[in-house]
Amino acid sequence: MKRIHVVISPVIFAIVITWAGCKGGPGAGNTIRIGVMTSLTGSNAAFGQAHKNGYTIALEEINAKGGLLGKKVELDYYDDQSRPDQAVQGVSKLVDQDHVPVLLGAYSSESTRAIVPVVTQKQVPLVMPTAVADNVVETGSPWVFRICAGSGSYATVTLDFLKNNGDPKTLAIVYENTNFGQSNNKSMTTAAQAAGLKLVDSEAYQASSPDYKSLLQRVKSKNPEVIYFASYLLDAGTLMRQAEQVNLNPKYYTSAGTGFAAAEFPTPDKGAGKYAEYTFSVSQWLPAARWKGSSEFDEKYFKLTNTHPAYHGMEAYAALIVAAAAIENAKSAQPQPIRDALKALNLPDTPFGPVKFDARGQNAHPVLVTQVQGGQYKVVWPADAAQTKPIIPTPPWSERK
Amino acid sequence: MSHRQFIAAAGFFLLSFAVPLVVHSDYTLQILFRVFLFAALGLAWNLVGGYAGQLSLGHAAYFGVGAYGLALLSKVGIPPWLSLFLGVGLAVISAAIIGLVSFRLRGPYFALCTIAFAEVVRLVAKNLPDVTGGDVGTQVPLLFTESSIKSFYISGVLLTGLAFVLTAWIERSKFGYYLMAIREDEDTAMSVGVNTSRVKLWSLLISAALTAIGGALYASLFLFIVPDQVMSLDMSVEIAIVPMLGGAGTLFGPVIGSIVLETAAEIFKNIFQEAHLLIYGVLVVMVVIFLPEGIAGTIANKLRLFKKAPAGSLAAPVPVRPEEEAERTAFRK
Amino acid sequence: MESVVNWFYPLIQAILNGLLTGALYALIGMGMALIFGVMRIVNFTHGAFLMLGMYVSYVFFLKTGINPYLGFMVSGAILFVIGYAVYMGLLRRIPGQVDFMVILVTLGLALIITDGVQLVFGADYHQINLPLVARNFRLGTQIFVNAPWLLSFVIALVLAVALYLVVTHTMFGRAARAIAQNPYPSPLMGINVNRVQAISFGIGAAAAGVAGALLLPVFYLYPGVGSQFELKSFVMVVLGGMGSIQGAAIAGLVLGVVESLTSLYWGNEWALAVDFVIFILVLSLKPSGIFGSQRA
């Protein structure tokens, strides 16, 4: 009886090969397909959705202006399921089968870091919108371009701000146990040492837990002047609410953006509400940013989703705009010319600010420090961009209303 | 394995080796590498899960130790291939420890215990960034000077071939009969003098070694790994689902399961986008309900039915062989 | 005096926090234990059920404004029906009722539910904002209790006791325990095994759903929210003694306290690892569970 499936298996196998071999081929003549890697399912799906919204808006704008090189632009999505191995497989699909000339993505630092060696090997340029861990641009690959600032700048800008605003002496880091959190912890630990701040505590936590009260008590017992959080949005709300419960009162609540910089964070419905008040955060972008087109993007995003964008959506938007500009400049939809065009690119005026890549492929994106004041993010640093003065020290919970 | 099966299997593997001559798309080769990788992992799992009937849901531990063994040992200057074999050794040692504890338990207790061990391994790797790189991840060296996917594909086929030959040999050996005796009824096996603890442990050690080689290959292809990727419960589950749906305790089941499931997963992803996991879930449920003996077993049965019963008599009751009945109820213990 | 403040109050507070979280764990664990007891399977749909319970309560809150501290009943009822239907419609139909295959189906079902919810509600997270969340009871200057956690603790405890009474004092409970001890002679004694298993699966799902509803005010929801609780429910089932629901309840409380103390003295990132190490130790030293008397 077993001999039957022996016959069947090569048959199925042959079918599979034929299927895989026949599909694809070079893209059609009238469109330019741009590959997009993001997380549409899995634990980062919420951010992948923000990516998708940003890409959708940029795509509409580009096609409304007649596309690129006289051709319509299409996006070719691949869902990495929030898993790096799937991202690697996806690069192969997008590049080898669909022949996209340029890739955007991925969402997470993990997935992005995983695909860097692959795009390098396949010689296709990769524009990275959101990966904050600095190891994504430290491989020496000439094919990667990062739009956002990394965890290193987050730490130095935060310390710079602190130095010039009260000069506190002790610091505790609270970070989630992921690539994002660990690399921010590393950057901050190194930078704090250089800046002469004493690191009194460094706490990793398991993301998405319902209860951080004991963790926060532990931080409280070390009595730091500054707390630096590296958290996603979901935990940022929980952490601040429970900080009130354990009566944790540092002089500064600072943070590495992301959860603490999301548009939803100061709102009561989807964030921490009044508990977000007075927290400092680094930020890549805000709807209120001074760059031309910021508020228009905010409007379009609101129209599309009924929510205001966090910077992740903007970074995706900017990534597509940058890739489109490179294709225009290269006058070609081939990987090598696009890469060269990205290297030479100088866009002084995007809604995400000026974009120009250095030798590593890093865009010198300015990082802002914001503080939540009256439920709004206000830029408080650097001085020349500040909208208002920071409120220091943070009033203890018992004195808030 | 009958004479005919041998010829078919040999033909299949020869054909597989020839694939890169015809297929030049890196994407297709990468999917096929994944197909063979999971066929090999499935065959490895099948020794413990299929033949011995011990539902392991913690094989990601061996997979991860193999992957991290290669990455971390070569980082301290050991040549990659040597690192790979040392990593496999480490996986076998961890399998020995895990086996000694968990094989004292039966059925679902055993399954839970393997999950727990794999989770501990993952969390330790995650929480010791100074050693493993933690979630920032770690670089993995290339095992082949030519970085082409072809080398990986061929090594995937070789690994599957190795696992296949081992399984075929075990299936006919005394050791194999002991394993199946344990699956059918562990107490009886013990009472007739089978040293069940030792037999189960050996099957796990072989299984872990093969799984660790797979882990190292996988890591080297991707050049970069993080604990949540190679040691997750999802990975353990995928390693187990492939042979279970293909046909647990059969020689060809894991290979067929991998061909069907891994290609289906990729096709669904391209067609259904965000709904692809839903469709995959439906596929899993449908296979269990409608193809209870796995894809391999059921197809074979259906074809036999056609042969034995000429047109018109399909509704006639099919005689159930006693060993089939035993297969069905084997895991209830 | 100073030193007492430094170590004593944090310890008491951490134990208190652990118990409050642990009560919800207990509810989740009891559901799993009931299913485990009568079916001898690891239910991989448990996390998805918990997540569904949260979404039911969430939608109910949006439509009617009734908060989850009453809405949990709706979650419980709907999840019971879903669990019952899943058993009757799917699990019962698995040929031969092979353990492997039942587990596979629960895995497949979890994928279907999670991805389905994501298609309907999106991948984005949601939360609700009750004024109650801001209310804290302070005992002296050092110890505090957050009101919603206290409320969920009380409700969970009442339900846990009720569930215990159902299992010990009703016909259904006796049948379930009979099946748990030995499923083979049960039909001979006139027990409708299918029906008892279906009800057990329904109650198990309902317990997870209720726990989800009670978590909603202090947590947030997204399609993948259930998986961490599912892992913990495996631990509780084993600690409590396989299939012993009172054991699982106590194990839930213990787990809450252990996690809380691990966070306080060692580091939050090790809490889950400590869970599993305890789990392995118990499995290898006393396979019948800390509180169980049944043979493993």
Structural commentary:
The complex is a heterotrimer of chains A (401), B (333) and C (296). Chain A has helices at 2-22, 45-64, 84-97, 109-122, 151-164, 179-195, 213-222, 233-245, 294-305, 311-330, 335-344, and strands at 31-38, 72-79, 103-104, 126-128, 144-146, 170-176, 198-205, 226-230, 252-255, 280-283, 347-350, 353-355, 368-373, 376-381. Chain A is α/β, with parallel strands linked by helices and 401 residues long. In chain A, strands 2-1-3-4-5 form a five-stranded parallel beta sheet, with helices on both faces. The N and C termini of chain A lie far apart (78 Å). Chain B has 333 residues and is mostly helical. In chain B, helix 3 packs parallel to helix 5. The longest helix of chain B is centred in the middle third of the chain and has 27 residues, at 196-222. Chain B is globular, with a radius of gyration of 20 Å. Chain C is mainly alpha-helical and 296 residues long. Chain C has a domain at 27-225. In chain C, 70% of the residues lie in helices and 3% in strands. Chain C has a two-stranded antiparallel sheet. The longest helix of chain C is centred in the first third of the chain and has 38 residues, at 2-39. The model of chain C has no long low-confidence stretch (mean pLDDT 87). Classes of the chains: A alpha/beta (401), B mainly alpha (333), C mainly alpha (296).
What's the total helix number of chain A?
Answer: 11
Q: What is the beta-strand fraction of chain C?
A: under 5%
Oligomerization state: heterotrimer
- The domain tally of chain A reads 2
Enumerate the strands of the largest sheet of chain C in spatial order, edge to edge or round the barrel: 1-2
Return the string of H and E elements of chain A.
HEHEHEHEEHEHEHEHEEHHHEEEE
Mean pLDDT of chain A: 88
Strand and helix order of chain C:
HHHHEEHHHHHH
- Structural class computed from helices and strand pairing of chain A: alpha/beta
Largest interface, C-beta within 8 A: A-B, 53 and 63 residues
Mean pLDDT across all residues of chain C, rounded? 87
Radius of gyration of chain C: 19 Å
Compute the CA-based radius of gyration of chain A.
Answer: 23 Å
Percentage of β-strand residues of chain A: 15-25%
- Major sheet of chain A: size, sense and barrel closure? 5 strands, parallel
